[in-house]
Amino acid sequence: MAGIPALRGGEHDTMDPSRRPDEDLRCLLQERTADLQRVKAEYDNYRKRVRRDRLAVREAAAENVLRSLLPVLDAMTAARRLGEVDPGLDAVADVLDASLASLGLRVFGLPGDPFDPTRHEAVSHRVSPDADRPRCAEILSPGYRVGDRLLRAARVTVVGPPTD
Question: Going edge to edge, which strands form the sheet with 135-141?
Answer without folding.
Answer: 120-127, 154-160, 135-141
